[in-house]
Prior knowledge:
By secondary structure, this protein is of the alpha+beta class. It has helices at residues 2-9, 18-28, 45-64, 78-81, 85-91, 117-127, 172-193, 239-243, 268-277, 306-318, 332-341, 352-356, 378-403, 411-421, 434-444; strands spanning 32-34, 41-43, 68-69, 75-77, 96-101, 104-112, 136-145, 159-169, 199-202, 214-221, 227-237, 248-249, 255-256, 259-266, 294-298, 323-325, 346-350, 359-364, 370-374, 405-407, 425-430, 447-452, 471-476. An eleven-stranded mixed beta sheet has the order 3-7-8-14-11-10-9-22-23-21-20, sandwiched between helices. Helix 1 (2-9) runs parallel beside helix 11 (332-341) and helix 3 crosses helix 7 (172-193). It is globular, with a radius of gyration of 25 Å.
Amino acid sequence: MAQQKKMVDAITSMDEDFAKWYTDVCKKAELIEYTSVKGCMVIRPYGYAIWENIQRILDGMFKETGHENVCMPMFIPESLLQKEKDHVEGFAPECAWVTYGGSEKLEERLCVRPTSETLFCEHFKNVVHSHRDLPKLYNQWVSVVRWEKTTRPFLRSREFLWQEGHTLHATAEEAIEETERMLNVYTEFCQKYLAIPVVQGQKTESDKFAGAERTYCIEALMHDGKALQAGTSHYFGDGFARAFDIQFSNKDNQLTYPHQTSWGMTTRLIGAIIMTHGDDNGLVLPPAVAPIQAMVIPIAQHKEGVTEKSEELCERLKKVCRAKIDLSDNSPGWKFAEYEMKGVPVRVEIGPKDIEKNQCVVVTRHNREKTFVSLDDIESVVLEKLEEVRDGIYQKALENRENRTYIARSTDEIAKALEENGDGFIKAMWCGDEECEDKVKEITGVGSRCIPFEQESLDDKCVCCGKPAKTMLYWGKAY
């Protein structure tokens, strides 16, 4: 137990310093390592395995909705990026530029892909000519570069991994339907597979994606009460199509402009998992994306038959989940602490006395609950326990969100709620004026997160100016 205590002590308490706790978990659980390139990280095998599971599940969901994977170039000529004015202005501060190829200066600067709308538009112009070519439902899994000033592992780095969907449709109705469908895919993924409850909504005009007509998003609340944008889906209208002169012959044989969407999720989802479910002992991983779902730990493995029985148990579990065994010479206490820190959802312990009784001990990570299980039933019980972990951490995250969601009818009430309770979501009415949106942030420090689809009439006046309210808004501090 002394060894276990030491392992836990290696992580700063989240109540003491949440930011330090977060970076401790990223490092101690071997998710990342820093590099000599400021703002960039090595995603280590354990961290990358989480991303691979996220990718596998999401990719399957995309294919079920008819999308195909493609791969666009990493570089964007400056002239191509300049074609959509709002878009390039929105990304200009974050662009990284290539000015030399080998030892020769390039005639035209190349932007290292911050996002790929312009590249997809160039491609769509070449391959879309008739209504029979539509819709185009594309997605790509790539890395992108945005030259962020302040960085933090997974949450905000200069290079990160993501998927970006790009689709083209004959009508506005079809494109809007696609935008909403993909937001629902993201919602299902976060809530079902990552056990993270989210709020669906639309971004305000000032906060929408550069070049979009509408931006939809899902917002999650982290353990410390700060919001995190977990995914976005954008409707572009025909703005990009007009800028890039993408036209097709419709069913009436008339040239018209198609309507476009894009949508994306990134490796910041790993940060969301850490900050939604983690505790002072380290990670708590949702079973669906955990690299190891069940870890078998032999007790007194030097004794006759223990290693063999443990290996046999692990092989059985491998048929129903991602199971591993630790046969190292570290003590059981060290192993318990190690796999708690790495967030393994289920631990399976077996020793000489258990073998005599044809049983083992199953421990669930989120609540440390121990259950004695007959070896005859181990497969079904472990699957049940994995569901228990998923349901338990979802419920805990939902309770955290509900306990940290406050209603305010004035900026004074916002300030008071934050002062008395700490950070969280603020639900308040808004007149729709951008000046009020900015003023609320200036006075209270919380910005608009989204206009939720599920509206409530909390008051008839704007939280800021007192004029008639048009909509309820979620406000909060954000990562």
